[in-house]
Amino acid sequence: MTLLALLFLLALLPAGSAKSRHLPKASISSPVFGPRQVHGVLGGSVTVKCFYPATSVNRHDRKYWCKESGSRCVTMVSTNYVAPSYQDRVSLTDHPEAENFQINISALGLEDSGSYQCGLGVNGRGLSYRVTLTVAEAPPVPEAAELFYVKLRSTWTVSCSFGPETADMKRYLCKKDKEGCRTIVNSYQEIDDAFKGRALLTFEEPLGSFSVTMTQMDWEDAGLYYCGTGEYGSGGKSKELDVFIYEDKNFPQLKTTVTGTKGSSATFECLYDPLKKSTTRIWCKWRVQGCDKIIDNTGYVKYSYEGRVAMFENPGNKTVTIVLNQLEAKDQGFYWCMSNELKEQQSSTELKVVDGEPGLTGKKEVEAPVGSRLGLTCSYPCKYYSYEKYWCKWNYTSCPVLPAQDQGLPGPSATCNTSNKTVVLSFDPVTEEDEGWYWCGVKRNGLFGEVMAVQLRVAAGNDARHSPELLDVGDSSPESGAVPPGGAYSDAEVRKGAAPESSDESHGSNTLALVLGPLAGLILIVVTAFAIVKYRQMKRSDLVSVGSYRTNISMSDFESVRDYSASNSACVKDSQETPMGQDEFITTTDTLESAADTKKAKRSSKEDADLAYSSFLVTSDSIAQDSSRGDSTVLDVSPKQDQV
After folding, report:
1. Beta 223-229 vs 171-177: how paired, if at all?
2. How far apart are CA 454 and CA 365, in angstroms?
3. What do you get for the CA distance between the two ends of the chain, in Å?
4. 417 pLDDT tier (thresholds 50, 70, 90)
5. Which helix H or strand E contains 128, and what residues bound it?
6. What span, in angstroms and rounded, lies between the C-alpha atoms of 613 and 557?
7. Is this structure's pTM higher than 0.85?
8. Is residue 33 within 8 Å of 130, Cβ to Cβ?
9. Which spans in 201-278 are helix H?
């Protein structure tokens, strides 16, 4: 028997410890919440507000107010009932849209003091909250704490005002604990480490007013707070705040931490009510002294974030998606989603930037001339093979998707090939309006994933510095249907309704131009040299009129004449030599006369040749001078020929 009892106790211990370990304090109690204490004056009136989760069942369930009496709780008023002793001085009003109901009690008497419960359903079933009512005979009475019914993981905002005389004093928010009141945040830019990135103090109008916002409210954030001026407990003004945390199963749970890789991107989600079109959605980076606005839904984008951040609204799930790319180490910190109307929908997310390689890769800056063909390429890893890929052009309000072609689409039996996983956005031709930021990204089930940003600069004419990686560059022998990065595009690849040509033609035309250019220059040089040579030859040949004929006489002809005269003299000498054998008897006198005649004839021939050559030089120089002056007159040298 003892053993069975021991086993029973051991079986109970884990359940009890598990309950205390996993269930927060606020969840152990009822989700109904009200004031801890209510103070009233004799003959006066009080109003008690009780909160409840606005589920469909709770909205239509019975609400009640009862007074504790021993182990019982006697109903004073309920949805359709009023106790006889409270007729005409107690009422209950339900406000389901505000998630609360109110009890108003008038003509207070001292007997009204005691412990009460406000609740839902049947008395004593657990959906209730205990309230202590104290009736004083005369004022003053303590000021009641302001109640805040806050959803788990949502945002709490409180506004405090103590008059313009406190404008120069320190303002603070502290939380009550056993040792006093722990400072959460103050106007001296001091903040508790546990609330960094979560709490923000803001000055408001009128003078002396301020507000404190806390995001990502958790179970341990429930309790008593004080907002005030000066120092708590040192004579300054303060106000008591009672915060209750409850869980709403329908409230979306957003990520509190996002991790991104350097050079890559990060995605954040914010809540908003799509029915309220006037609501301004703001995304900012938290700082101790305030929240630095980066982007909003009206078209504002901070200058240093142009091309880096975009806001996408998703009315279907009542969220706004923020994408921040080109991550750097300095981007690490806390980012807030804020709204000018729905305070509880504000949220904060911590961004952590780690080292690593981005999944999407490609040229980040591209410059192209107007009228050229261009392809922006974006390569993705195997892990994104089944994701939806897209290109979009960034603007101040969104990033509209553009038609692009995904190479290496998965087939029935396709495997991930790392060589052709590229998404191409083509331009044919490039125009000045195409300049700007372009994003390549991936999606899955409608959720935004990684993004890569590319800045395109468009230059007029030949002022652009071509990017060989992207401008008209393709494989010399691409496979059929394949699109080389930054080069050719198939007919399925459309930009503004135009289908670009193949890059093989572009590549071939570029190669032909590179070959024919130098060849044409070489031919031009050869032709020019040949013309110069011919001109010089023509210049040396002069037109001469001899008698009634015109003929071309060159310098070589006159040199031939001179040589001929000399050779003729030699021939005469040879012809006068008689072989010894026929005329054996030759007198000395004949020999001497023959020699004298030969010498005389040789001298006469040489003089005639020299005279003819001198006449040619004169004529040749005259013709050259006339031709250099452009004179077409023909020089007549017939008298000299006669003399010769």
Report:
1. antiparallel
2. 6
3. 166
4. low
5. strand 128-136
6. 10
7. no
8. no
9. none
